[in-house]
Amino acid sequence: MKPIVRRLSAPTRVAVHGRAGVGRRTVAAALTGAGVAVVPDCADVDVLVIAEAPKPEDLGFLDADRPAVVVLNKSDLSGYGPGGPLAIAQRRAARYRTVTGLPTVPMVALLASATPTDDLVAALRVLITEPADLTSTDGFVSGAHPLPAETRARLLAELDRFGIAHAVLALERGATVPALTAHLRDLSQVARVVDLVQAAAAPLRYRRLRRAISEVRAVAAQSGDETLAGLLRADETVLSVMTAAVDVVEAAGAEVDRADDPEGHLRRAVRWRRYGQGPVNALHRACAADISRGSLRLLARAQ
Q1: Segments of the chain assigned to CATH 3.40.50.300
Q2: What's domain 2-111+188-200's architecture?
Q3: Distance between CA atoms of residues 298 and 260, nearest Å
Q4: Cβ of 46: how many Cβ atoms within 10 Å?
Q5: By CB distance 3.0 to 4.6 Å, which of 43, 75, 216, 287 could disulfide with 15?
Q6: What confidence score (pLDDT) does residue 66 get?
Q7: Of 88, 86, 180, which is closest to residue 128 (Cα–Cα)?
């Protein structure tokens, strides 16, 4: 059983690609800090980092046999307009998705790992009462200001202008240092990137789970172990497979009824039974069967 458990519990491996200057290493560090297993090769999911519109050479980094996610990094530099730079970057990401067919999300990777030291937090507090020129990096560092130019340069290196502005606003509203760090992390959009990576890996997790169940079934048959046989029939096993199947179809854009009452379970079981009988591929047919099976098990529990 140990090899089966080891394969089943292996993390999703992610390779981060991108041209020089787009912040590939910063994105990789942000994902690593968020608990993602970033690897140089043999990945399960590719993350392509761009800093402007995707070019043919960008897409050349990707493996056609692996799912991929596009990260529009440096979104804080997207310019000014309705909603601010992140809203502009979000609209651009939506356009790029129609071009590449790949899930695309804006990101400010620099802020994902930002942990301002006490002296930098003190400097940010000075900026509350003594605003500095944030219209350009040169203006911020070289302009006349009570803060030493070296300190201002360190703030730029740690947060850039976008992060400085938001950090000052957060501190002015009374944010503590841990709350400030969490706020900067939220602004980075790293959580959204991780969610897209997990969604892209949903078919992998589902197939891995189905394979593990087949292997356990073979071990149970060969050994006559009733404990293993009982595990395969248990509600927890059926519902775990259902959950993995739901992740797959939702990642593809389908909606799954989350009603938790007998009528909802029956309605969901019937709907996905019909879905699996329609013009869908083998993966979605298997997922539909597992969603229907899990729904019937939940119905039996409720009754």
Answers
A1: 2-111+188-200
A2: 3-Layer(aba) Sandwich (3.40)
A3: 8
A4: 20
A5: 43
A6: 93
A7: 180
Rounded CA separation 140/131 (Å) = 10
DSSP string for 89-128: HHHHHHHHHHHH-S-EEE--HHHHT----HHHHHHHHHHH
Name the percent of the chain in helix, strand, coil, to the closest 5: 65, 5, 30
Extract the residue ranges of the chain whose pLDDT is less than 50. Answer: none
pLDDT per residue over 31-74, tens digit each?
A: 999 999 999 989 999 999 999 889 888 989 998 899 999 999 99
Q: Are 199 and 191 in contact (CB under 8 A)?
A: no
The pLDDT of residue 150: 96
Containing 140, the helix (H) or strand (E) segment is helix 137-142
SS3 257: coil
Distance CA 237, CA 170 (A): 46
Q: In this structure, are residues 39 and 68 in contact, taking their beta carbons and an 8 Å threshold?
A: no
Rounded Cα gap, residues 283 and 174, in angstroms: 51
At 78 the pLDDT is: 87
Four-point Cα dihedral 140, 144, 147, 151, nearest 10: 40
Which pLDDT value is given to residue 218? 94
CB 62 within 8 A of CB 68: yes
The proportion of the chain whose per-residue pLDDT surpasses 70, expressed as a percent, equals 100
In angstroms, the CA 93 to CA 85 distance is: 12
Asked if 86 and 78 count as a contact pair (C-beta separation under 8 A), the reply is yes
What percent of the chain stands above pLDDT 90?
91
E strand or H helix at 70? strand 68-72
**In 3D, which of 85, 154, 149 has the Cα closest to residue 116?**
154
How many residues are recorded in the chain?
303
**Angle (deg, nearest 10), helices 202-223 and 235-251:** 150
